[in-house]
TrEMBL record:
InterPro entries cross-referenced by the UniProt entry: DUF3311
High-level lineage: Bacteria, Pseudomonadati, Pseudomonadota, Betaproteobacteria, Burkholderiales
Segments passing through the bilayer: 9-27, 39-59
Pfam family name, one: DUF3311
Key word Transmembrane present: yes
Keyword Cytoplasm assigned: no
Keyword vocabulary terms for this entry: Membrane, Transmembrane, Transmembrane helix
Protein's UniProt name: DUF3311 domain-containing protein
Length: 65
């Protein structure tokens, strides 16, 4: 049962994937942040968010395999 619970944390890794694959949702210029078009800063933001999510999932699932 504990292993199944720890594996459910892996579903969090799908969130960044969906955010990056769904290009029409961020394929635009506005709003700009510090002069950067939305298209670029949105992707850069997801690099950071993905790292946090990946680290969180790692700590939740380590030692379970």
């Amino acid at each position: 049962m504990a292993q199944k619970t720890s594996r459910s944390w892996l579903w969090l890794l799908v969130i960044p994937w969906i955010a990056m694959v769904w290009v029409p949702s961020y394929n635009r210029i506005d709003p700009q942040l510090w002069g950067f078009p939305f298209f670029y800063w949105y992707q850069l933001l997801w690099v950071l968010v993905s790292a946090v999510i990946t680290g969180f999932v790692y700590f939740k699932t380590r030692g379970q395999s």
